[in-house]
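Possible regression after last week's pipeline update?

I re-ran a chain I had predicted before the update to compare outputs. Posting the input and the new output here so someone can diff against the archived version. Not blocking, just want to make sure nothing changed silently.
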Amino acid sequence: MKENHLLLPSPQKAKQQYVQFTQPLPSEPFEKIKMDIKFIYIRGQRKNALLLTFLDTFTRLPLAWDFQYSIRHQNVAMLFDRIIEDWLQPYRPCIDGKVRVCLRSDNDSRFVAKDLQDYLKSNFVDQEFILPATPQQNAHIESFNHVVEELVCKKYEFDDISQGRQVLNRFFYTYIFAGLSVQYYTCRRQCFLMNG
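New output (post-update):
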């Protein structure tokens, strides 16, 4: 079959840049953004839904999230567009006026997709991947996913995905604006307003 060219060509894999440091030490917001997918069981439908979350490592704030039965690399790109519009464009760094964004993730096929890597390059975003079998290199987002597990998944059984979205909307709103990070967020917001 091979000699008659009946087999499809093997798919091209994008080159992956792996992390240089185990734990990032960002010096300002949006310098290191982590993304990950968490599976949440929808009891009424008897299947898993996927929660995609982007988390700023410096402030520990979830910048954007999406909850669907299926997430593809196009969904990741559309969600990152929202981060650019809502967070990165209005932000003015206090130091030199420039921020270099680096997006860190695991080796999920949605994050490794060549189209997504091209999209991020066109938006001047660096992408790095954790080494296989080392979730501790993505510890901030894994810790956040554990919080979601403890405060949402163990307390609620969802009948459908819309009920899950409602609960997650309340959770994210509370986590961002009424949680422990609100004091720091308020401080950074003043810096945003002074520079804006």
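Follow-up from reviewer: compared with the archived run. Residues 161-177 form the longest helix (17 residues). Marking as no regression found.
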